[in-house]
Amino acid sequence: MHPALLTNSNSGSTRTDVPEINFVRPIPGFSDLRHFALARLDDRESLISELRSLERPDVRFVVTTPAIFFADYVVNLDDQDCEQLGLESAADALILTVLTPGEDARTTTANLLAPMVINARNRAAAQVILTGSDWPVRAPLG
């Protein structure tokens, strides 16, 4: 389920009437950006979306649901992360991984070490670095 899914028109508009996803803390490297929306990359049902900044539309993260590609992927959040996101149930957590597109699917990688976690109920989000984990920063999709 995408809490703020919109169709990508490539219009570059900065504000939409779709619900915002608000990061409770800055994404590393993007300290001034907190407001995003989840957008489809095309009009078809796609496995891959983009997390688009509403403050700077040129900032976009290509994301996917990791369970599609990594069946054994599990994210364990600590109490502080759950509290900051207002998460009371794991069922409310939408987990996304940031992709680094390659020339094709075989060379595209997913950052499994630092997923984006979104509370589907209140749209609070954070990029969480999984401490004590062996998940790679660049896991091949293929």
TrEMBL record:
Is tRNA-binding a UniProt keyword of this protein?
A: no
InterPro entries assigned: Flagellar_assembly_factor_FliW, Flagellar_assmbl_FliW_dom_sf
Say yes or no: keyword Cytoplasm present. Answer: yes
For this UniProt record, the keywords arranged alphabetically read as follows: Bacterial flagellum biogenesis, Cell projection, Chaperone, Cilium, Cytoplasm, Flagellum, Translation regulation
Q: What PANTHER family has UniProt attached to this entry? A: FLAGELLAR ASSEMBLY FACTOR FLIW
Summarizing the function annotation, the protein's role is: Acts as an anti-CsrA protein, binds CsrA and prevents it from repressing translation of its target genes, one of which is flagellin. Binds to flagellin and participates in the assembly of the flagellum.
Output this protein's name: Flagellar assembly factor FliW
Q: Organism classification, top ranks?
A: Bacteria, Bacillati, Actinomycetota, Actinomycetes, Kineosporiales
